[in-house]
Amino acid sequence: MQTEIAADIAAIEAISSVPTILEAVAAITGLRFVCIARVDADTWTTCAVLDRIGFGLKAGDGLDVATTLCQQVRDTGRPVIIDNVSADARYRDHHTPRIYGFQSYISLPILRPDGSYFGTLCGLDPLPADLSNTATVSSMGLFAQLISKHLDSELKLTESQSALLYERDTSELREQFIAVLGHDLRTPLSSILLGAELLKCEPLSAQAAGVLERMRRSALRMSALVNDVMDFTRGRMGGGIALGLHDEAGLQQWLDQVVAELRGAYPEHRIDVDIDVAGKVYCDPGRIQQLLSNLLKNALVHGARDKPVLVRALARGGDLDMSVSNGGPAIAPATIEQLFKPFWRAAGHAASEGLGLGLFIVAEIARSHGATLEVTSGDGATRFIFCLRAGESAERRRAARA
Where are the beta strands (DSSP E) in 22-116? Predict the structure, then answer.
């Protein structure tokens, strides 16, 4: 019960307009004590108060509900209005005015958002007051309704905030779990890959060698998926994509290696290459290699099989321009906007094609390098374009970390 009372007091205190409402009620009625009270069958509790006669109540204080007229308001759902106790046949001998020493009194019901009874907007004064006139009663009714509306808004806001906090906590817990799981999977995967490499050195039948190679490729794919998950969780938990930046003079070999590996993995696809990377490029070559690998895999999986995938890369003066193009129907602009979101897949694509993190990681690698990444699609071709500018990337990297 005390928890419920404290929550209701807090709900009233959270309504910023309550002090103004109490001031307005006092000004309209002439009453020098005005309050909002929470009332139930057993308790009467002050939630907010304006006291200019030294009545002595403050927020959180209670009265014996049986000694108040608010109990009558609760039971009947109707206001109680007294202009002058001494001249009122019903209340001049009533115990409540005698106990609390008032001559004028008004109390109107305040309802909760679900329509149930919350309490009253009430006021009193040791002197008589003209409270029963239509204008005063209407104004008081509007103030009581306004408080009810605010209670509804505060309830919805509290529920939304609670839901948001729950979702945030759940999301953080989920991402922490994924990060721990990915980290723990690395050790057994490394053992499997090491074992597969050792077995390749042993004499094996053609059938066993084929099985071993499929096992090795599956383990490599699992390892790539684990790495994607680790990169994703680092990015989502604030760490960003980790970079080892330096002036790399051999980027051509890093990119050529990606093309060679994927030609082996997708022998049925044609990959045309135009790579001319000269001089040094300030970058993380492993991440640039990962970016190209993800883009090329995406093109091989989603592009038209009867059309070649084209990989272009040109580097001069520290600038790097790289693109991957594939044939196929144009991608709708609404779909392009979704491409770099984590775990997103276009309708109709099988879940077995991956986790849906490849392009998200591509975008994060580009952002961490301070580079730009664009997509164009039309006239039977889709192209992903990565541009790293030596003179601009440092400033962009600082902005990306801010």
Answer: 33-39, 44-51, 62-63, 80-82, 104-111
